[in-house]
Amino acid sequence: MIFAIDPGSEKTGTAVVSEDGSLVTKAIVPTPELGDYLSRVYETHPFSHIVMGDGTNHKKLQPLVEQWIARDHQDITFSLTDEKFTTVEGRKLYFKYTPRRGWRRFVPLSFQYPPEPVDDFVAWIIGRRYLAKQRGGNP
């Protein structure tokens, strides 16, 4: 399993993704709490790799993740992956897995914006991109 991160300045999307790309768990956590969250998730879903999107905010979070690995988890590997267009893909994935209710059912998706943050879906996409790259395929 891998732990995927969509780094943000205030909130960070996270997803634990199995080797076949399926979602194990996802969450949006306050960015300052990411280290504690990594520890909690690792207890229930031990992962062997952490992948982070290479967007602007990764420069703040990468040292935190590397310290977490160095402190107690030297067997876990870390990498960055391309984050281009993941937010757009995250919105599509959100609507695929979140049924529309009420008036939203009648409005085309191209005119809609998710009513809540999609950072966790974006993290899932980052994880899937990493796995596809490892297999030598397209994301």
TrEMBL record:
Taxonomic superkingdom: Bacteria
UniProt-listed InterPro entries: RNaseH-like_sf (IPR012337), YqgF/RNaseH-like_dom_sf (IPR037027)
SUPFAM superfamilies for the chain: Ribonuclease H-like
GO biological process, one term: nucleobase-containing compound metabolic process
Protein name from the UniProt record: YqgF/RNase H-like domain-containing protein
Organism: Megasphaera elsdenii
Lineage of producing organism: Bacteria, Bacillati, Bacillota, Negativicutes, Veillonellales
